Amino acid sequence: xxxxxxxxxxxxxxxxxxxxxxxxxxxxxxxxxxxxxxxxxxxxxxxxxxxxxxxxxxxxxxxxxxxxxxxxxxxxxxxxxxxxxxxxxxxxxxxxxxxxxxxxxxxxxxxxxxxxxxxxxxxxxxxxxxxxxxxxxxxxxxxxxxxxxxxxxxxxxxxxxxxxxxxxxxxxxxxxxxxxxxxxxxxxxxxxxxxxxxxxxxxxxxxxxxxxxxxxxxxxxxxxxxxxxxxxxxxxxxxxxxxxxxxxxxxxxxxxxxxxxxxxxxxxxxxxxxxxxxxxxxxxxxxxxxxxxxxxxxxxxxxxxxxxxxxx
Length: 312
Ligand SMILES: Cc1cc2nc3c(=O)[nH]c(=O)nc-3n(C[C@H](O)[C@H](O)[C@H](O)COP(=O)(O)OP(=O)(O)OC[C@H]3O[C@@H](n4cnc5c(N)ncnc54)[C@H](O)[C@@H]3O)c2cc1C
Description:
single chain; 312 residues; alpha/beta; FAD/NAD(P)-binding domain; 2 domains; 5-stranded parallel β-sheet; 4-stranded mixed β-sheet; 19% helix; disordered N terminus; binds flavin-adenine dinucleotide
């Protein structure tokens, strides 16, 4: 697809036509679509582009013949890197987003500020931590990695305590069918329905718990206490602990309208802020919907720029 001038023409006072926050499928699709209608964009991403896709070993719901996340990611990244109208700011994250009548102002972690007539926010979701759920008591400041970060080689022959029964456990087991890893899955009653797909896997020990108290890390092992069925406290020990509690929206601070659950409905935002991808709601969290909503967000900015010319 060729980038097609003419540009939408933001005044010289703006750094670019469009700031895109987040470089997942939604943000990348927004940048590509913006370029195709002649809009300049700056895309800010702290990690590598499409980082989530590198965690998906097998795909069965994406058009185009892609059968794995990395395969799709490589294709998107190559295309975006050759998109001349998009300036990539990798290794940076947005710390604040402000919107007024004339423009949006985005602050990045270096303290630098960028402004543009419109911003697309496509920051997706991130893993909940033990402090975010009532059924776990954890040492202050404890941050644990999500299960998908456990490398099969590192997990080989080890016992991992997995907190929560969310679906990535099934993904991990399917992706590593021969891994000799023991998973101790401690989960609350609310996750009961999610663990059906892993119930029969011989590598899994299910530990339904009402409450679990994580001990301080000791050397390379972890321990936790939870009341057993007879109400007596049982000690659980493992080589490492990982999370499968679920995800929460990761919107940057500032002028975004959030629901009580932290999601940012597109219809409720400032006219200069457009939300795309997983950040919109807990529903529709898929690659294809992220690509579509990111593309649509860029076109929204394009048409809004024509109808709402900025001052200057
Ligand atoms: C293990 C796993 C398996 C999955 N399997 C499938 C599947 O098989 N099929 C499917 O359709 N979907 C699958 N998904 C879901 C799919 O990956 C997501 O729906 C999709 O990635 C959402 O795209 P997004 O661009 O909205 O958000 P993301 O991909 O989450 O991208 C958001 C980006 O924003 C960045 N960001 C966050 N905060 C900031 C900030 N302050 N400043 C700047 N950037 C920021 C993040 O670093 C991230 O790169 C899976 C997800 C996971 C985790």
